UniProtKB/TrEMBL annotation:
Keyword set, alphabetical order: Heme, Iron, Metal-binding, Oxidoreductase, Oxygen transport, Transport
Species: Fibrella aestuarina BUZ 2
Keyword Iron listed: yes
Swiss-Prot/TrEMBL GO biological process terms: cellular response to nitrosative stress; nitric oxide catabolic process
EC category: oxidoreductase
Globin domain residues: 1-135
GO MF term list: FAD binding; heme binding; metal ion binding; nitric oxide dioxygenase NAD(P)H activity; oxygen binding; oxygen carrier activity
UniProt EC number: 1.14.12.17
Family: Belongs to the globin family.
Lineage: Bacteria, Pseudomonadati, Bacteroidota, Cytophagia, Cytophagales
Protein name per the record: Globin
Amino acid sequence: MTSQQIDLVKQTGRLLWSIDPALIGDVFYSRLALQYPQVRALFKGPLDVQYGQFADMLNIIVARLDRPGEVAVEIADMTRWHEAYGVQPAHYAAVGEVLLWTLEQGLGKQWNADVRDAWLACYQELSQQMLARVYAGGYAAEGH
C-alpha cells in the first residue's frame, strides 16, 4: 500500500466508526450469508458477538496500518481464529468481495475509485499475509 492509500483507509475508517458497529456487522454478515452461505456458515456463535469482533478487527487493523509490526501480530491472531473456524484459502476472495461491498454501503457518497483501490490494496495485502501464514503452517508453526 502507498502512504496515500493508508491515509485514505484511515480517513474513511474514521467515518465508518461513527456508524453503529452492529449495523456494519449486520450488513457484512447478511451479505455474506446471501452471496456465500457456505462461508457464512463457518462463523458460529451469537451474531452480536460476531458483529463486535468484525468491527473491532477492522478498527484495530486500520489504526495500525502504518505500524507493520503491530499489524503482523493482529494477522497472526486472525489467522489462528480463521483456521479454528475452518476458513479455507478459497474463502478469502469471497470475504474480500463482501467487505468491499459493505464498505461501499457504509461510506455512501464518500466511496469512490481511489477509496475502493485503497481498501482493496489493504485487504489484498492483509489476506496475502494471512494466506502466507496458512500455507507456511499458520499460527501453530510459531509454537503457539
